[in-house]
Amino acid sequence: MNRSLKSGNFRSSPVSQERKKELHLFEKNAGIRFRKLDFLNLAFSHRSFVNESKESIENNEKLEFLGDSVLGLVVSEYLYKNLNGKNEGDLARIKSFVVSEDSLAIIAKELKIDNFILIGKGEEYSGGRNKKAIISDCTEAVFGAYFLDSGFKASQSFILKYLVPEINKVLENRHKKDYKTLLQEYVQKRFKSYPKYFLMKKVGPDHDRTFWIEVQVDGKVYGPGSGKNKKEAEQQAASIAYTNFMRD
Fold it and tell me: DSSP states of 47-79 as a string?
């Protein structure tokens, strides 16, 4: 099904009447309205769904790429205009928390992204609808789709509606900490070096694997931390090390 739009050509999966009802439900919950539902449907099309499709259609990865840039600009402008007392380093730190996978996953849950995303059977079986990486990437794709569909001002309002509360969490120190970044900054300042992460083991089948990782700082080993992916395990290991240094 070939869609030729002013923003460029792309091939999306057909939007049935039943699917239209689902997408309108998403719009109602999100408080937005798309001019062209094809954009929104494409934003929900994960590559696993496309790979299993018999039709020649696109996935949402280019929209995710675009949405990431739009999100970065919107958040940077907001922080620049509203946090005049902060220096560039502080603004960059706040932004890194706000646009992180954890933050976007929280927003994805508010938007109920997991109810609307189109994923393949294999990914469905492995719990893909609840994977932070998948739903946070899809949220960025929705941002990108809305930007193409309705322009910068509309997408800016939409993004800030959900991102400003996350910004306030950071300012009030209520956010989930990025311990890898905190540990790296601490180690660079105190030891003039960097933390080193080592994978100790991984157990379980591909769809339910657990990783165990230790972190080495100045010759000492901390951890291990565990998680369903390497990022989570590294964060937990970094949390153990950072907490230990804060007690000293």
Answer: HHHHHH-SS----SHHHHHHHHHHHHHHHHHHH
- Which residues, including other chains, have CB under 8 Å from residue 31's CB and lie 6 or more apart? 158, 161
Domains of the chain: 2-171 (1.10.1520.10), 179-247 (3.30.160.20)
Q: What is the pLDDT of residue 85?
A: 87
Rounded to whole angstroms, how far apart are CA atoms 216 and 184?
11
Q: How far apart are CA 88 and CA 93, in angstroms?
A: 9
* pLDDT band per the 50, 70, 90 thresholds, residue 243: confident
38 assigned to active site: no
Output the pLDDT for position 45. 94
CA 14 to chain centre: 26
By CB atoms closer than 10 A (0-12, 13-18, 19+), residue 2 is exposed
From the list 246, 22, 8, the residue with the least C-alpha distance to 144 is 8
The vertex-224 CA angle with 248 and 202, nearest 5°, equals 165
User: How far does CA 40 lie from the centroid of its chain?
Assistant: 17
Q: How do 8-11 and 2-5 pair as beta strands?
A: antiparallel
Catalytic residue among 38, 64, 140, 149: 140
Which of 22, 27, 61, 68 is an active site residue? 68
Q: H or E segment at 83?
A: none
> Mutual orientation of helices 152-171 and 132-150 as an angle, nearest 10°?
140
Active site (annotated) includes residue 208: no
The 10s digit of each residue's pLDDT in 157-175 is 999 999 999 999 888 876 6
pTM of the complete model: 0.72
